[in-house]
Amino acid sequence: MVNKLLLVSALIMMMLFVSGCTDEQVPDGGQEDISDMSAEELAVVEDLPEGYEYLGAPSLTVEEVQREYVNTSGIVAAAEGLYRSGSVDLYIEVIEMESPEMAEGFISEYRSGFKELASGTRFAEETFNDHSALRIKTYSTVGGEQGPRYTYIWSNDSFVFVVGGATEDYSMLLSLAESTGY
Fold first, then answer.
1. Strand (E) positions, the chain?
2. pLDDT the model gives residue 31
3. Which of 76, 126, 78, 80 is nearest to 102 (CA)?
4. What is the rounded distance in angstroms from the CA atom of residue 131 to the CA atom of residue 109?
């Protein structure tokens, strides 16, 4: 009788433990549900890689996004977070769209605005944080010399994430992109 009581008590404790743990789990294979978050919340990363610092979040309007990326409808809001690693300035821009399909369409339309490079590959797919992202290579003239610049862009739910900066080292951008967790 005592053994049965102990067994039932142990089962109840295990059920309580398991039910408490499942409340903490996040959907989509470990990714946090961001559908109820704002672009402003997502543009500010709290757990930065070592050597990176958060500088602030200047305002970013829908009109600025349309000028810079894609002049399209369906943009709900946008936000920017500024960061620095050593002497390199970096940014995360988060663009909230009306739906996940519109977020994917935003990226496709943005990608279609680039011409192929004379040599080399402009686009590369990379995977991090359980999703794929597009790395875009452009060239910028700095000090009279042309050098590559990179941008990472991907969507999660109805948000488009853009990570870029003034560096030829795309691994710096990748570290910042990974630190978003999304």
1. 52-56, 75-85, 88-97, 123-128, 131-142, 145-156, 159-165
2. 53
3. 76
4. 19
Single-letter amino acid code for the residue at 88: V
**What's the mean per-residue pLDDT of the chain?**
86
Give the whole-angstrom CA distance, residue 106 versus residue 77.
13
Q: Are 91 and 81 in contact (CB under 8 A)?
A: yes
- Residues 39, 44: Cα–Cα separation, whole Å: 9
What's the rounded Cα separation, in Å, for the pair 177 and 91?
10
- What is the distance between the alpha carbons of residues 156 and 136, in angstroms, rounded to a whole number? 18
136 within 8 A of 126, measured Cβ to Cβ: no
In the prediction, which pLDDT does 142 show? Answer: 83
Q: From CA 114, how far away is CA 134, in angstroms rounded? A: 13
Contact present, 181 and 55 (Cβ < 8 Å): no
For residue range 29-66, what is the model confidence (pLDDT) as tens digits? Answer: 445 678 889 999 999 999 999 999 999 999 999 999 99
SS3 175: helix
26 class by beta-carbon count within 10 Å (0-12 exposed, 13-18 middle, 19+ buried): exposed
- Which structural domains are found in the chain, ordered by start? 37-179 (3.40.1000.10)
